[in-house]
Amino acid sequence: MGPASDPDAVVDPAGAVRGLDNVSVADASVFPSPVRAHTNATTMVVAERIAAALSRSRAG
């Protein structure tokens, strides 16, 4: 995950996969660096936020 200027970032901050339409990632693989704590809660929060953003964007 990272800005468009980062050539190593596969997804944007909203979880959308760069270069592919209608493909998003909402799990721990979007973290730009390793998480020092237990990843479950952090992953759930990221997934919920990405899911909410996708829902809003597709609602019309």
Could you walk me through the main structural features you see in this protein, from its secondary elements to its overall organization?
This protein has 60 residues and is an all-alpha fold. It has one domain. It is 33% helix and 0% strand. The protein contains 1 helix and no strands. The radius of gyration is 12 Å and the shape is flat. The N and C termini lie far apart (25 Å). 7% of the residues are buried.
Q: Tell me the domain tally.
A: 1
| Biggest sheet features | none
- Based on DSSP secondary structure assignment, what is the total number of beta strands? 0
Kindly provide the radius of gyration, computed on alpha-carbon positions and rounded to a whole number of angstroms: 12 Å
Intertermini distance: 25 Å
Helix percent band:
25-40%
Mean pLDDT: 88
Gross morphology is: flat
Point out poorly predicted stretches. Answer: none
Oligomer: single chain
Following the backbone from N to C, one meets helices and strands in this order, namely H
As a percent range, the share of strand residues is under 5%
**Which structural class do the helices and strands define?**
mainly alpha
Number of discrete helical segments: 1
